[in-house]
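Human: Cast an eye over this sequence-structure pair and say how the chain folds.
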Amino acid sequence: MAFGFQKPYPRTFEAWTLDPDGPPDGRNFRFLEPLIYLTKSGKLIRSEIGGLTDGGSVPRETFNILAPFDWWMAFSLHDFLYKDQVELYAEANQAWNHCTFDEAEANLILDEALESRGCPFLERIAIFDALKAFGKTAFNDDRTSAPMPTKVPC
């Protein structure tokens, strides 16, 4: 099996809904179907149903260059990793188990997911540089904004 998003893909707008509890900016969505991704190292990751995403945390001034939903599956997966809303498939017991990825792992998986979707190399570098500059605050905010389940390393 090749790395990348696994079928069936969520059907863009049928797979998510505006979050009624989110800010009234029209950018917060709750997934109604899981998003499944296979890493290059062989980890099969699934977002939890009900996971929240705002697409890419992209400043409005740059929307003409990079919009928050240009790479929506990769950005959404990254949100789920930051918010600790993912499960890992365990071959041993053939079950999905909650697991916690740290910030560095989440960022590397985002880069890999962008690559799997055909994101150009220079655009991936720009996204990764922005994460290095601003990601720590978002990661910390996401981890402290809601009660988290027991952290289980992946």
About this structure: The chain has one domain: 4-144. Helices lie at 72-82, 103-116, 121-144. The mean pLDDT is 79. The CA atoms of residues 16 and 134 lie 26 Å apart.
